[in-house]
Amino acid sequence: YNVSSSWRLRGSLNAGARLPSFTDLYLNQAPANIGNANLYPEHAWQYDIGVQYQGYLGKVDLNYFHRTIDNFIDWMRADQQRPYQPQNLGNSEVSGIGIQYANTILSSQRFSLKQQVHYNFLSPIHRDNVEVYTSKYAIEHLRHQFAYHLQARTENWTLSGHFRQLKRTHQKSY
Fold first, then answer.
1. Is beta strand 33-34 parallel, antiparallel or unpaired with respect to 42-55?
2. What tens digit of pLDDT does each residue of 81-123 get?
3. Residue 14, phi-psi category: left (phi > 0), alpha (psi -120 to 50), beta (remainder)
4. Alpha helices for the chain (secondary structure H)
5. Which candidate, 51, 62, 63, 65, places its Cα nearest to that of 2?
6. How many CB atoms lie within 10 A of CB 168?
7. 3-state DSSP call for residue 23?
8. Percentage, residues of the chain above pLDDT 90
């Protein structure tokens, strides 16, 4: 929805599903990993709301989202002597905010220089139906993401550079 020529509001509501993959169902790499033919599909709902401002100095985009996943699939094992096997863990929720700034630093008929800066914060919550002993993915949710993109363009070539810094729930940033 355009509030004015500079301000825009938006929102969405989405539903989705993820079927267990062939690997999830039938993998046989014993003793390390085995599949589980009794998995249920994941089902998800997501909504997001956002506001965008575009002015002389660039564009700023701010949004909030929330996703709920039922029958979340994760690979887990009871102890180190058993193989990892996918299980429907229960319910998972992720809320987050994102902010993006983009602008054109220089612009002429022959050359342009543009940049974008992004930051995302995510807050995952698990409501498990299964006791988790060792999980491959549950503790590795993305928590912070920072990204910077710079692009120089002429009529004949484009040069761009990207930088991204990630921080997961229980790991050092990389």
1. unpaired
2. 889 999 998 888 999 999 999 999 999 999 999 999 999 999 9
3. beta
4. 22-26
5. 51
6. 16
7. helix
8. 72
Looking up tokens 């002597």, which residue turns up?
81
Tell me the HSE value of 171 on the side-chain side, using a 13 A CA sphere.
Answer: 14
Neighbours of 96 (CB within 10 A): 18
Angle at CA of residue 80, ends 76 and 83, nearest 5°: 50
- How far CA 52 is from CA of 34, 73, 77, 96, in Å, comes to 46, 35, 45, 17
pTM: 0.77
- Going by the DSSP 8-state scheme, the letter that residue 169 receives in this structure is T
How far apart CA 100 and CA 112 sit, in angstroms, is: 20
Task: Retrieve residue 137's tokens.
Answer: 């993915």
Q: How many CB atoms lie within 10 A of CB 110?
A: 8
In angstroms, the first-to-last Cα distance of the chain is 37
